[in-house]
Batch of 4 targets.
Target 1
Amino acid sequence: MDLEDFELIYQEILRDFGFDRKEDERSAKVLSKLLENRVPIIHKLSSLTKGKRIIICGNAPSLREELQYIDISNHLIMAADGATSVLLDRAILPDIVVSDLDGEIDDIISADRLGAFIVVHAHGDNIPVIREYVPQLNNVIGSTQSKPIKDVHNFGGFTDGDRCVFLAHHFGAKGVTLIGFDFEGDDVDKVKRKKLQWAKRLIRMCEF
């Protein structure tokens, strides 16, 4: 999906949730400023992902059980935010973590220090955590759902889980397997349920 197509979806998301685009863009500028003196590493992410089969781990309660029955060898492992904690607890280091920094931040920092790439997403509600934690991370690639700016890219996607899928597609992955995803969770609030339905819709748009 190119940026023009995603722009139409993004506008629909803004209307559906009542989000403020200006705040998304302000957050992206904060992230860009924090990354401006770093050597860009996005080319490393591209070479890591291209042509690979990727297991994308969501943070649904089923993730622990599903990990017992799936062979992760010969796959790249991508974690959606809080799934990082489950993986590290199983002694699995994700290759890539996609996060808006509302998961267990100590585990995300640990994954970073062990060599994982951390794709940090800027949106209107997470400016304080971006300012606090991005300086503590080494292997950061910035992302936004609005207009891309220096060192902050728009790969497509809305929630951490579907952004993983769009990222894999953007960088030419051979295919993805999703585990730890539950789009019909009963124990979530109304806003979270709506986000899950958007994630489901967006993932279906992203064909390999």
Target 2
Amino acid sequence: MTASIVDGERWLAREREALAKVDLKPEARSVGRVEAIADGVARVSGLPEARLGELLRFEGGRMGYALSLEADAINAAIFDEAEAIGVGSLVGATGEVARVPVGPGLLGRVVDPLGRPLDRDEPVAAEAFLPVERPAPAIIDRALVEEPVATGVLVVDSLFALGRGQRELIIGDRATGKTAIAVDAILNQKRSDMISVYVAVGQRATAVERVVEAVRERGAPERCVFVVASAASSAALQWIAPFAGFAIGEYFRDRGQHALVVIDDLTKHAATHRELALLTREPPGREAYPGDIFYVHARLLERAAKLAPELGGGSLTALPIAETDAGNLSAFIPTNLISITDGQIVLDSRLFAADQRPAVDVGLSVSRVGGKAQAPALRAASGRLRLDYAQFLELELFTRFGGVADTRIKATITRGERIRALLAQPRFATLRLVDEVALLAALADGVFDAAPVASVADARARIAAQLDALAPDAVTEVMTKGTCSEAARGKLVAAVRALVGTGA
């Protein structure tokens, strides 16, 4: 009996010692409930301290975020399928905002906007997690946009040059080659040090697969990240996708590197924002879009910037894509994006139907950085190109129904036809800087004037091998320094002349 009492006292002492190590501080936890749910949006009550954009955890493990706050309820957008969530389900606030994994471990991967892998089961090796919503760099933290972004597309590089840190809108009707220009720009970065981030918003899965395969076959997939919120994804994932893509690009920018972000496309993103706004009973405005749609895209695209040297000198360049209906650039979303960005590349459906591809409308397209970010060699070679082409297009209209007797007009028409043939370029056939300089210099010197129009395409296809064989010193000078001396220019033009002569 005495032994039992002793054992009991020992057990009690051990329990008291273990209990003394337990933190028994009072803890308050707010728990809400789902009042209503439909179309991927839940109305939640009972979380008075929740913040806008805060992640919410629903019963069953589903996640969402606070889309809008009302006096007595929260409208929450749910990231994934919502079958497990019903009226009365418990909801907890996490105290965290939506974050995306960032770091070199994402390179070559296909992920969703939350960083979950879509290409294989292997998890993403994240170096850090950044909020999808981040403030844009202040004006004092930015540097001038002076370094070029070579797209390898001659009409873009020569007439509407892009700079690192710029925001250039690609806009046009459906199926006019908008994505093709952006993908060519990504493919061409295999020759540069830029990291590419392709963000698919509301696109068909097959279209996204074609882009991924094109980059894997012809580009540098080890320096690309694919963020995919396809048409089958929830509206919440589609909404945060562009912001997640920018956060991934900002990781590299903030470390002194250079990143290119393609958003395909912001028209579908605007439609998703309108859908969520209407579901949460926000007042509709023009074309039923809520009044804050301009601010949504402005705060997104303002994050593209060239940082000052004291902050590392990194850059984030944005190529947003937008779709028009029947070429209507004055619609609400196109006018918003045009006013936010630093220029636009406008694609024309009539040019596309006429087999002029890329179908860039040189009259409506513009780059507000332009020659400031152009390589000196290319700037010198493309001096009068836009003016000569514009004169040709205008004269072509007037001479379509009658003969041309004036010698000067005939020469302008001849030169213009060669310019048009030179600016036409197949997909996935990007040009090096030296190739573009050589072709434009030869055009300016009249090398193509006496040759058939068909020879222009043949010369463009074989130009790289020709220059490497006949003018290696000039190739090295242009590619390393970005300049072209008179001696180098002469060698390049001579190489093209020989090519046209053999190909005629």
Target 3
Amino acid sequence: MPERGSEPWVMASMSELLSFARAMEQEAVDGYVALAARMRAESRPDLAAVFERLVAEERGHLGKVDEWLGDRAAEPVNLAEPLFDDEGAGVVAPELLTSYRAFSMAVRNEERAFVFWTYAAAHAPSDEIRQAAERLAREELGHVATLRRERRRAFHELRRGESGSVRGDLPALERRLSDLLGEHSGRLAGLANEALERAAALSEDPPGVTPLLDHVSENVPGRLVPLCEFLLDCYLDLAERESAESARARMQTFASDMIRCLYAAREL
């Protein structure tokens, strides 16, 4: 995240906000272009194709930001630190990379962008800027959903035929999440309470059906980050399946909560 003095999330104007959005998308494009070139040079056309798909995805995002900028001139943006993180993919041996790892890296970059715009909205100095930041956060949430689908597909290709799964229950998984968060005492107490509240809400008013709950790896409920990851996938999938706007918004809210939880869990 860029460092901006004592208030790193304040965007002073719409031009500044959109300029930051453009810089973030351009940085992602450049990162994936470099990774695709490296994979081609290392004779990994399979992974080059994955990164080229990510380039196309990010260029689509960049095009949307440019449309939104319209006649405004993008302002110079001085990023104190890179927003895009290739998580070592640019230097690790190509033999150690997989499509699953590539999409996992892309997912985490989109999640970081979502968190950035959520905080920017929370610290916005005007309603116009807050609404714009919220729109960008919603866009990033959609990108997260798209890339997590791709990651699931890549994961199942890697683990096809694996045994050791059980039928999942969302309220039970949320209560398990609360237990795991509670192991970190006061630091994550608020998130643990939120998990219990979601469990109660899901029990009282069950959502639709997601096939992700048909086969839950037995390892998922035992570890904090995998459980957060799985629940996020469930809520994003449910949001896409819900036909009623209120039900869809509810699942998107739960997905947003889970990204915050996942972000906190990864920082432990």
Target 4
Amino acid sequence: MSGGSLTLRGRVRAVLGENIDTDIIYPGRYLNITDREKTAEHLFELAYPEIRPALQPGEFIVAARNFGCGSSREQAAAALKFAGAGAVIAASFARIFFRNAINLGIPAVVAPDAAALCAPGDELEIDLAAGQIRNLTRNVTISAAPLDPRAVELVSTGGLIPYLKRKHAAAS
């Protein structure tokens, strides 16, 4: 799918503020959990305990700037993935969180105005390659940074590991 596009459609589960750090996403006290799928049980546990039980597969988390700041732990992105989040949309991301999300196959969409133009329950359509979010509920278009074609390919295959497995199988 090199150079292709990927469009996602889903509802906004939550709109969060600025500086949502990795301890808020996945508390450090659970770093001893080695089963990555179990990380989902503790997503936003301390700061937003209502999000995890309500999150439906494919729903989006929207936030203001600096999402994923703090520790570089991959468990924060893994908790979002295994909880079923369809994408995280934020005004900006901490660089390492952004890379971890893409490597795990979670779309991390940079959209500076999204937090102001979205509300929980809004239905969105995201074109990752074009860098466009359509809020279908409010009938507005939100500018986003297009994902690099390689990132779109990683997301579409489910992350770096499935991508490499597929690539290796094709070469065999």
